[in-house]
Design goal:
Length: 340
């Protein structure tokens, strides 16, 4: 009998590999055949990483950050039977405007893919007089219509919730400056229509724990559970040799997700393997999506590794929630409404 409940569809064909009997730290383990996407995956694309996947028509679909050989990132569509072996479309996703004319961002990176009701939304970071958030919607993965930019610059990281809360779409993001964000907290904004965003709230800030003391940002779309919204996010530490990106876990209030119920004071995954420590940007694990099965509590976390690869890690709902609760440190700034 599972202790906690995942409130979502079952996913019988979730990719899965059993983990160890015992854990030194968090109950999270890597797929043994990582990375699942290697270098030069598409003609003209040197690396794919920081990407998001979803179940679709009994198989899987995803939006992938492809770093082109001119160094400019863009979003490519990928298809898979098993969510591990991916085939990519060689053309960039052809975004259009409301009138149906081509409307391509100058660059696009760190895409998330989230289904709310019957529509799939792609959310990414792009240029809008500086780094800002871009969005598009699709129902068939053939026509991709861009939506209005939700925020003015600068903002480099946004994640949509998979359902409306109190009748509103909910978006996590990290407002920043024009540089490579040498700071940053997670904020929440709501919208009645995916166009006008407001009622901004502070969710959580960098913590005194060194692994997330520089900046934090949303990762995978939160998973609805009986304990609240289970959120895997990234936390950044600064060293004399650059930033280190780890994965953290927190649980947000179900009806009011600007309130943090539990926040794990330790990372749940940090760069340790060669594909996480060595690459275009070393020491990065950057989660962008999960697949999860409500019947078994299995969770597969998709993360970018070293800005070079896509990798996969696993956990189980009961174990990860217990771990987050047992190691939870929630400060006043995490629990307040975030309106001051
Ligand atoms: C962040 C984003 C991510 C990237 C990370 C490490 O600011 O740009 O796309 O993975 O830096 O380079």
């Amino acid at each position: 009998m599972s202790k906690y409940k995942m409130i979502s569809e079952p996913l019988k064909n979730i990719p899965w590999q059993e983990g160890p009997e015992k854990f030194e730290g968090a109950p999270v383990w890597r797929y043994k055949e990582n990375p699942i996407i290697g270098r030069n995956p598409v003609p003209g694309v040197a690396r794919i990483f920081n990407s998001a996947v979803m179940p679709y028509e009994g198989k899987f679909i995803g939006v992938f950050r492809g770093e082109q050989t001119n160094g400019i990132p863009y979003i490519y569509l990928g298809h898979s039977e098993d969510a591990i072996h991916w085939e990519f479309e060689t053309e960039k996703i052809p975004f259009i405007d409301k009138e149906g004319n081509p409307f391509m961002p100058r660059y696009a990176y760190d895409p998330r893919l989230v289904k709310v009701e019957d529509t799939y939304y792609i959310i990414w970071c792009q240029d809008f007089y500086g780094a800002s958030i871009g969005m598009a919607k699709t129902q068939d993965f053939k026509t991709f219509e861009r939506l209005e930019n939700p925020f003015i610059p600068f903002n480099r990281n946004a994640v949509l919730f998979p359902r409306k809360i109190n009748g509103k779409y909910m978006l996590l993001s990290r407002p920043s400056d024009s540089g490579h964000t040498p700071f940053g907290d997670i904020f929440l904004s709501e919208s009645p229509d995916m166009e006008y965003w407001g009622h901004h709230r502070h969710v959580m800030e960098r913590s005194p724990e060194w692994w997330e003391s520089v900046k934090i940002g949303g990762g995978a779309a939160p998973i609805e559970t009986s304990e609240g919204w289970l959120m895997f996010y990234h936390g950044v530490s600064s060293t004399c040799n650059g930033f280190v990106y780890s994965i953290g876990g927190a649980i947000l209030d179900i009806d009011n997700p600007s309130k943090v119920k539990y926040r794990c004071e330790t990372f749940i995954l940090t760069p340790e393997e060669w594909y996480e420590e060595r690459g275009f940007v070393p020491n990065v694990v950057f989660p962008c999506a999960t697949l999860h099965d409500s019947e078994t509590g299995k969770i597969a976390i998709y993360y970018g590794a070293a800005d070079s690869y896509v990798a996969l890690a696993f956990t189980r709902l009961d174990d990860i929630i217990d771990y987050i609760k047992e190691h939870s440190v929630v400060r006043e700034s995490d629990t307040e409404l975030g309106i001051r």
